[in-house]
Amino acid sequence: MKKRSTVLVTALSLLTVTAAVTPVCGWYDSEGSCYAKGDMIGSLGLSVHYFGAYGSFDYGVHDCISAGGAVGYVGYSLLDARHNHIPLIVRGAFHPFNLAALADKIVIRDVIDVYAGLSTGWLFVWIRRDNLSLQDEADKPGFRIREYIGMRYHFSPKWSFFIEDCGYLTNIAGGVSYKF
């Protein structure tokens, strides 16, 4: 797991450095896309697997890269115990539909935004059983890092539906997003 996390962090770091030092090379193109540099997107969603809710905010720092943060809640009962998770994370994503090589090949990029990235942050956890607070190995609070992937369908210039595998926010989630 540690090796996989190191590879993911290194890949995202190289991508970010490349985006920062090569803005004139023409490897990206947001013209005609529903995502662009400077976009501010707020999202509210519910999870499908283990009930939960979360909110996130993403800012377009580049035509292909966004950064933001999120907070959520997931709660479930398992084996006479109530599990509660509150993640507080930061995240960064890559938007591949804005690559110049794909710009003219993906005709739906004006309404579909696909993204993938890394999330990292702190997971607050508590477990209640018979009025006692218990924790097991799998549910310890602490620092987490995980990948996430998602898609937004823009049904208007400001509003969209989304679905994500949320990287410690929840498992599979869906909801609505608003572009400020």
How would you portray this structure in words?
A hairpin with a 2-residue loop joins strand 3 (65-78) and strand 4 (81-94). The relative contact order is 0.20. This protein has 2 helices and 9 strands. The protein has one domain (2-179): Porin (Beta Barrel), CATH 2.40.160. The chain is elongated and about 60 Å long. The longest helix is centred in the first third of the chain and has 20 residues, at 2-21. It has an 8-stranded antiparallel β-barrel. By secondary structure, it is mainly beta.
Query: Which percent band covers the strand fraction?
Result: over 45%
Tally the helices: what do you get? 2
- Percent helix, as a range, is 10-25%
What is the makeup of the main sheet? 8 strands, antiparallel, barrel
Radius of gyration: 18 Å
Which outline best applies? elongated
The number of distinct β-strands equals: 9
Domains (count): 1
Output the strand order for the largest sheet: 1-2-3-4-5-7-8-9
End-to-end separation:
37 Å
What's the CATH topology label? Porin
CATH class: Mainly Beta
CATH architecture: Beta Barrel
Describe the structure using short key phrases:
180 residues, mainly beta, Porin, eight-stranded antiparallel beta barrel, 52% strand
Helix and strand arrangement:
Elements: H1 2-21, E1 40-47, E2 52-60, E3 65-78, E4 81-94, H2 100-103, E5 112-129, E6 132-134, E7 142-154, E8 159-165, E9 172-179
Antiparallel strand pairs: 1-2, 1-9, 2-3, 3-4, 4-5, 5-6, 5-7, 7-8, 8-9
